[in-house]
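Hi R.,

Quick one: here's the Response regulator sequence you asked about.
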Amino acid sequence: MIRVMVVDDEALIRTGFQHILEAADDIEVVAAVSGGQAVRTAQERRPAVALLDIRMPDVDGLTVLADLRGLPHPPVVAMLTTFGMDEYVATALRSGAAGFLLKDTDPEQLPSLVRTLADGGTVLSSEVTRTVVDGYLNAGPQQEAARSLDRLTDRERAVLAAAAEGLTNADIAARMHLSTGTVKDHVSAILAKLEVGSRVQAALLAERAGFLRPPRDQKEP
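And here's the predicted structure, written out as tokens:
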């Protein structure tokens, strides 16, 4: 079972997400709480995935994200919002969020998105993807990003490329004929070498460096 915690200041949102997710046979919502209860509840209930509202009246969602990421056994966190909120996207991703979802995401997609998060994948609603590309990708020198990628082995670069496609650890393992544990080890090494906190950050850094696209002056054969 995938243990999930829903964190939102609105009880109606929490209850709605809980009902949707618990309809899936492999997902258990172990807690549905407000922001002020999130960190203590995560320590007690040990969720694997947390869906966290980015703006709450009792506590800032970005502060909760940082506190959750600092736990000995942190959950994978996807941020929830009702609109794009450009200024928060990059900050959340740099702080270790594994995804960014709008609250009006199709309910039928939610269980599969949670499975993707639990398996080490990343999720971004299409409405916020453009913001990520325009903002996060353009931050920092391209040369610096390229130098960071030089630290990776060929196998790690292949894993990074696959992760940037949105593949989960299981998907990457199947494609590269590796065990899921080996893929997880490679991902951990990639994050450490690139000095980033999440797969999203690693993929964005690779995109900024031009690693995921052919050089502009490359001619067609």
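The longest strand covers residues 27-33.

Cheers,
M.
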